[in-house]
Write a structure and sequence with these properties.
Elements (H helix, E strand, L loop, with lengths): L7 E7 L5 E4 L6 E3 L26 H10 L3 E4 L23 E3 L4 E3 L5 H10 L3 E6 L6 H12 L5 H8 L10 E4 L14 H18 L4 E4 L12 H10 L5 E8 L6 H5 L1 H22 L7 E9 L4 H5 L17 H16 L4 E6 L9 E4 L2 E4 L3 H10 L3 E3 L2 E3 L2 E4 L2 E4 L1 E8 L4 E8 L5 E7 L7 E9 L18 E3 L2 E4 L2 E6 L3 E8 L1
Helix pairs in contact: 3-4, 3-5, 5-6, 6-8, 8-10, 10-11
The chain binds alpha-L-arabinofuranose.
Alpha-L-arabinofuranose (AHR) binds next to loops.
């Protein structure tokens, strides 16, 4: 049992078995590997390491990725993709060129490429989410890449794939049409009008090569982008028919060391999602379309710890320690709240990628001595492992506090029902830093459901980290904080905590 604080707040979650938001699309638990820093080299791939298999893939990292259960991985960028020539990364390694990599000011050797990535996807049981370069390249290269990956054979690029060892087409289903094209930092950055047309043409030609693919057009790189709203509208007005999903990206930081406001960022994320849904539906209405554009939140996380250090990085070296945020306990709380926010929008958010997966703003870190779980690993792993089923439409009564994003409830929660397996899972964050919370939920429609497990992640110090030397400083425990009596669930959520309450019949 976790240590009790003096005061106790109360909150209620009201559910009705028939009030559903949507089944969870498992792709909401996706992640991201970019050619950036040590994500690929020394992250998932390190030939010669004592942790590598015969192909150079790190087995310890693969094991942790399988522990999370990551259904899709976006690749190869990110900003990197906007300068990437995919042909450089395939074929005999000794013939692959090294290139100046202008997004991150490094040298890319191309010793790991498309075919190695596809093999690795099989190793960790994930599906690729491939991005095409619409920055420095364009529709012809996008077409050729789909041909290389998905065409059966008998053509220039499909035969190239076969020669490189992949007889069967990869059949990659999900394709990003560039990356963050609204950002002035992006190689080949464009206006919304230009990008909207380009995305439409690229999506059209890519679907001619393989009509079964789905495309993701770039939305805004964040809610605070000056073009937010207009960008989405303009891009969709031009590319509606060939686009299936619109992307959103967001990263939060606590540079001001203001934990309550930092934790309230999930309120901003919630608003971001609702507003993008509104713009998608506005364009749908104007076009009198029957098609609905859903959302791909394909970059989300906390990112700020490494910013200062990264400013001092030497340029034009290979895979430096870049964007290596060391996460603390409050970051894990916000990540938990962000996952809850994504799930509460499961009717429209069908894809989401925690950015990123290994070493670069990541839940998993590596060194020559092994791999370890950062604090944010836990809520991500819990959500992916236990958050499968249908999200219920809950009414939550919670005390709240005033934040820079307006009223922020102390309780963030989501309820997922899995009728097939007769289970209910509640993910809940108590954002109150001082007070425990008694959370109740009337379960009388779920006759016979009992508490199977209450998993708790908490720590006295919000700044506590997991490091190479102290990898288990912040880790979950199982507690006896929940019970069902006369059909009412009551759970004690300690101050500043992430909770997974699992009920089964
Ligand atoms: O994930 C790190 C970077 O953040 C990505 O390359 C880019 O898309 C975003 O700005």
């Amino acid at each position: 049992m976790a240590k009790k604080s003096k005061k106790l707040q109360t909150a209620q979650i009201c559910i009705d078995r028939d009030f559903e938001i949507s089944p969870v699309d498992e792709r909401i638990y996706g992640s991201f590997i970019e050619h950036l820093g040590r994500a690929v080299y020394e992250g998932i791939y390190q030939p010669g390491s004592k942790f590598a298999d015969k192909n150079g893939y790190r087995k310890d990292v693969a094991k942790l990725i399988k522990e999370i259960g990551v259904p899709i991985v976006r690749y190869p960028g990110g900003n990197f993709v906007s300068g990437f020539r995919w042909e450089d990364s395939v074929g005999p390694r000794e013939l692959r060129p090294s290139r100046i990599e202008l997004a991150w000011n490094v040298i890319e050797t191309n010793q790991f490429g498309l075919d190695e990535f596809m093999k690795w996807c099989g190793l960790v049981n994930t599906q690729p989410m491939m991005a095409v370069n619409l920055g420095t390249r364009g529709i012809d290269d996008a077409k050729n890449l789909v041909e290389y990956c998905n065409f059966k054979g008998g053509t220039l690029y499909s035969d190239m794939r076969i020669r490189n060892g992949a007889k069967d087409p990869y059949n990659i289903k999900l394709w990003c049409l560039g990356n963050e094209m609204d950002g002035p930092w992006q190689l080949g950055h464009q206006t919304a009008e230009e990008y909207g047309l380009l995305a439409s043409r690229a999506g059209h030609i890519m679907k001619l090569v393989d009509p079964t693919i789905e495309t993701v057009a770039c939305g805004s790189s964040g809610l605070t982008m000056p073009t937010f709203g207009t960008w989405e509208r303009t891009v969709l007005e031009r590319s509606y028919d060939t686009t299936d999903y619109l992307s959103l990206h967001t990263y939060y930081g606590n540079g001001e060391n203001d934990t309550p406001n930092f934790l309230a960022n999930s309120v901003a994320m919630d608003r971001f999602i609702s507003e993008v849904v509104s713009v998608c539906d506005y364009v749908k209405a104007v076009k009198r379309s029957k098609k609905t554009i859903n959302l791909s939140f394909d970059e989300w996380n906390v990112w700020y710890h490494s910013n200062e250090q990264d400013e001092k990085l030497e340029k034009w070296v290979q895979h430096p320690h870049q964007l290596e945020d060391v996460y603390n306990f409050e970051d894990a709380l916000l990540v938990g709240s962000m996952l809850i926010t994504l799930l509460r929008h499961a009717d429209r958010v069908k894809i989401a990628c925690m950015a990123q997966l290994v070493n670069v703003i990541a839940p998993i870190m590596t060194s020559d001595t092994g791999a370890w779980r950062q604090t944010i690993f836990y809520p991500y792993m819990h959500a992916s492992v236990y958050g499968r089923g249908t999200v219920l439409n809950t009414v939550v009564k919670s005390p709240s506090y005033e934040s820079k994003h307006g009223d922020a409830p102390y309780l963030d929660s989501v309820v997922i029902a899995d009728d097939e397996h007769e289970s209910l899972t509640i993910f809940a964050v108590n954002k109150n830093l001082e007070e425990d919370m008694e959370m109740t939920c009337d379960l009388r429609q779920y006759q016979g459901y009992k508490v199977a497990e209450h998993i708790l992640l908490t720590h006295d110090d919000v700044k506590a980290e997991n490091t190479e030397k102290n990898p288990d400083n912040v880790k979950p425990v199982t507690v006896k904080n929940s019970k069902v009596e006369k059909g009412i669930l009551s759970s004690l959520l300690p101050a500043k905590s992430w909770n997974v309450i699992r009920l089964t019949k």
